Every structure is written in structure tokens, then in C-alpha cells.
Amino acid sequence: MSTVLLEARMATVAAAVEVELAALLPAAEGAQARLNEAMRYAALGGGKRLRPFLVAATAELFGITGAAPIRVGAAVELIHAYSLVHDDLPAMDDAALRRGRPSCHRAFDEATAILAGDALQALAFEVLARDDYGADPGQRCRLVRKLAEASGALGMCGGQMIDLLAERQELTVAEITTLQRLKTGAIIGFSCEAGAVLGRAGSAETEALRGYAHDLGLAFQIKDDLLDLEGDSAVTGKDSGRDSEVGKATFVRRLGVAGARAKLEELRRSALGRLDIFGDSARVLGQLFAFVIDRRS
Predict the structure, then answer these.
(1) Is there a smaller number of Cβ atoms within 10 Å at the N or the C end of the chain?
(2) What is the largest CA-CA distance in the chain?
(3) Architecture of the domain delimited by 3-294
(4) For 81-108, b where at least 16 C-beta lie within 10 A, e where not — what string?
């Protein structure tokens, strides 16, 4: 599959998720209109929607298409949006830009941004549990539980805590790997495993997707580290050089630019090997890995 075709498929999924999010997010009206407006500001109109695409692509391996993976993708994006809102706060990264526009707390205020993040997180679990979601009750329970695990203290939030502590201490490559496996990789892992849940995959197939997600999550973060060092804010849509300023623990800092790029290639080979179980049907996931490590934003 060419890069043009891959990007077209990603755009199709992103458009479907955008429509779903617009329908799921509360309208900016009523006494809490400012909160609703901030939620929509944070979740709509931006990003590559990589995580929903992973849900759709992995579900398709098992013949599942249509509304079911799109709803899961929307739930993942609600979690992702909440995490970015909170990550940008002054107590965290104090970022001025997100997706090429003022971060949520800059566009509104800190208190509204905190509440918007809280409400986005709650909505993510609600939309998976609601009666208007067509997955069967067992699948819905598994998805809610797995998304909660990926988001909490043993997943994304735990990784963020380690990341904050790492600003005051040196981490080894193994420790940075653990940090990123939780902070970035846990939600990417859920996105891949969600497709397996919807497709009622066997244990070998599920394990292969977990391994692929592990490699992809690390590669995504290493590429982000490289973009923070070398990227242009006008292209990336967020502040550049922030990691270096605050002394964050990154692969680039420990391995150097050349070492980080070598690690990307190592992860690519590993990820492609994990996909062998699916044969040619997983070609899009291989192409997606190349897209992630070659991107400019």
C-alpha cells in the first residue's frame, strides 16, 4: 500500500471519528456551556487520529468494520484529548500550543481545562457502556475495563508520574522504556487490543497485536522526542524544545540522535516480525509503522 493510500484510509477513519465525537460531545449550551465548549475545543478538529485508526485496522483483521470500531476509536480519542488537556497545564508541561492553536487552559482558563479533562475522561467510559453501542455486553465490559487499565495508575497516568519524577533524576534506557510503555504505549496497546476484542481473536493473535503495539508505542515516542529536538513548531503544532528545557528523560537524550534512529529501525523490524501471523492482511499495519517513524508532526 502506498503512503497516499494509507493516508486516505486514515483520513476516512478520522472523518468518521470526528462525526461520532461531534454527536457524542455535549452541545455548548445551558449553565455549563463553557465546560461543554472547552470539551469540544479539546476533542474536535485536530490530530491524525492514529489510535482510532489502530482500532479500525486491527478490527478489520477479523472482519469487523463499520460503527463498532468507530465508537471505540471515539472513546480512545476522548481519553487522549483529556490527557493532552491535563498534560498541557502549568503544573505539568505548561504548553502554550496544542495542534497549532492555544492549549485548552490558554483558550479558556486552568479551572475550566481541568474540568473539561475530567468530563472527557468520564464520557469515554460512558459511550462504551451506553445502550446505543452495538457491541454485546461482554465485549463492552472488556473494553471498559481494558481502557480503564490503560488509562490509570498502571498505564498512562502511572507513566506520566514517572515522567514528572524523571525531570529530577537520570533514568536508564530500560527505565525510559518502562516510562514510555506506560505513558504512551498503554493507550496504543489498548487501541490494538480493542480490535482483537471486537473480533473475538485467539490468544496467539491477541499476543501478536500486543507485541506490535509495544513496538509502535516506543517508536511513536522516540519519534516525538526527535521532533521535539529537531521539529518546527509551525509543522508539529506544539512547542518545540520543551523536553530539553525541563530535562525530561528521553531516548534521544540517552542514546543520541543516531542511536535513537537506530532504535527506530530495530523496533520496525521487530514489529513487522510480530505481524507474520496475519500474513498479507496486516500489510496496512506495517505501512502504518513506517508512517509513524517518518512523520514530521
Answers:
(1) N
(2) 54
(3) Orthogonal Bundle (1.10)
(4) bbbbbbbbbeeebebebbeeeebbbbeb
How far is 233 from 253, CA to CA, in rounded Å?
Answer: 20
**CA 132 to chain CA mean position, Å:** 24
- For residue 112 the three cell numbers come to 475550566
Length of the chain equals 297
Please tell me whether the overall predicted TM-score, pTM, comes out greater than 0.85 for this model: yes
What DSSP string describes 259-297?
HHHHHHHHHHHHHHHHGGGGGGGGHHHHHHHHHHHH---
Q: Is the dihedral of CA 131, 46, 292, 262 positive or negative?
A: negative
Q: In the prediction, which pLDDT does 284 show? A: 96
Cα angle at 61 between 49 and 198, to 5 degrees? 75
Q: What is the pLDDT of residue 28?
A: 85
First-to-last alpha carbon distance for the chain, in angstroms, is: 21
Q: Is 102 helix (H, G, I), strand (E, B) or coil?
A: strand
Residue with cell 493510500: 5
CA 250 to chain CA centroid, nearest Å: 18
At 210, the amino acid letter reads R
3-class secondary structure, 27? coil
Residues 6+ apart with CB under 8 A from 201: 61, 62, 195, 209
For residues 154 and 271, give the distance between their C-alpha atoms in angstroms, rounded to a whole number: 23
Give the separation between CA 122 and CA 247, rounded to whole angstroms: 32
User: Which residues of the chain have a pLDDT value below 70?
Assistant: 1, 231-248
Rg value, the chain, Cα: 18
Please give the single-letter amino acid code of residue 29.
E
